[in-house]
Amino acid sequence: MLQLTLSGGRLDRIAMGLSGLCIVHCVATAILLGLLASAGGFLGSPLIHEVGLTFAILIGAIALGRGIFEHGFMLPSAIGGLGLGVMAGALSLPHDGREPIYTVVGVMIVALGHRLNVLASE
User: Fold this and answer.
1) Position 46 in a domain
2) Within-domain flag for 72
3) Predicted model pTM
4) What's the rounded Cα separation, in Å, for the pair 4 and 52?
5) Which residue range forms the structural domain that includes residue 106?
6) C-alpha dist (Å) from residue 73 to 21, 68, 96, 116
7) Domain membership flag for residue 112
8) Torsion of CA 48, 110, 64, 81, to 10 degrees
9) Rounded (10°) angle between helices 46-71 and 98-121
10) Whole-angstrom distance between the N-terminal and C-terminal Cα of the chain?
11) Which DSSP symbol is given to 102?
12) Tally of domains within the chain
């Protein structure tokens, strides 16, 4: 039986990478929407945003929660949880100009939580 194990630091680094990809996606989509309206139809699809953001929230919650058990500090998870809440709230917004702003703010807060998690584990 294959057992997949990831250390907390590695999981946080993966989550930070996903956060970075999310920011790149949001910024690239905004730029492409402004430059090429036809490309915005694919990249700006609500389905891509909803699935990607849900996946990022799930991975982020696992990584932040795991950090509590590894190092015992609540602050990284509390900060990251705030960012996850902002990201989850962005899912409920209509797909207009406010949604990407809330998503990017939430992702940056979550990335800070993951970074604090990594620092606390070292």
Assistant:
1) yes
2) yes
3) 0.70
4) 22
5) 9-121
6) 27, 6, 37, 10
7) yes
8) -100
9) 20
10) 31
11) H
12) 1
